[in-house]
Amino acid sequence: MSTPTKSRPRPRADSLRKSPTGDRTAQARETAIPAEKISRPPVGHADEGAPLVQRAVEALRKKILSVPHDNPFLGSEDELIATLGISRPTFRQAARLLEHEQLLKIKRGSGGGFFAQAPSARAVSRMAAIYLNSQGTTLQQIHNAFGPLVIEAAALAAGTANEATRSRLTDFVQSHDGFEELDDERLQMRVVLEFERLLGDICGNPAVALMLSVMRDLVRDPRFGNVGLTRDRARSYAEFHRKLAEAVRLGDADMARLFVRAHMAELARWKPVASRARRDADVTHAVTAGD
């Protein structure tokens, strides 16, 4: 009579899968920062009534923002579900929301998993612009908010101690000299927007730079019409660029503020007009109709 043999435990499925990236992925898995298990908030806590999905999003977002950029691996779906202590449907809802925020990247297949994605100012700006649009923000409200932001950015840029940084606007103006005489209105507008973006970059305040980006995205919404660049308006922008760039280069914050205020007052008097291409088409149509 033979002695029955004991069955050996089956290896976990995870141990049978091999990542094509080899040891690096394995090391990333081992060093992934654990997330905190989600538990019900204590009575009276601000999150006491928050849905579980919302709390899962917040916990996962906190984990994403804490991981080092050189090791963005968060874990597999099973690992994160176990770590957070939530159900698969709840985890997947939370993951979809974070993927929409562009904070989470999901890779399928062998060697895949969930990876942190650094927050993008561009993505944040677009979402903020969408929200403000949904609130019916008017062009006048945008102008009222945009002016002080540009004034602050200009003063901060002029006040920076780094002379090379202060000279970046001057370099930009010189490299785009004569843009106001171009026939392509889209290229002219690109120069205007790039100048504003550069001003935000060199001002040294990420909050001001982000809000400037939000205002730029918002003001380009089609419902406001097109504050088109006539030839005179393009020349006005070019003159403003030259004056502000020189004030910033010299480190004169008061003069920088003065130039921005004068420019914003001029913008407030402008009315929406059709693009140059549309105006030319309308003239051609009128002439043809007259024939």
What does this structure look like?
With 291 residues, the protein is mainly alpha-helical. It has two domains: 24-38 and 49-116, Arc Repressor Mutant, subunit A (Orthogonal Bundle); 122-276, Four Helix Bundle (Hemerythrin (Met), subunit A). Helices cover 62% and strands 4% of the residues. The protein is built from 14 helices and three strands. The chain has helices at residues 13-16, 23-31, 52-66, 77-84, 88-100, 121-134, 139-159, 163-166, 168-175, 185-202, 206-219, 231-250, 253-269, 276-290; strands at residues 73-75, 104-107, 113-116. The chain has a three-stranded antiparallel sheet. Strand 2 and strand 3 (113-116) form a beta hairpin. Helix 9 (168-175) runs antiparallel to helix 10. The longest helix is centred in the middle third of the chain and has 21 residues, at 139-159. Keywords: DNA-binding, Transcription, Transcription regulation. GO terms for molecular function: DNA binding; DNA-binding transcription factor activity. This is FadR family transcriptional regulator.
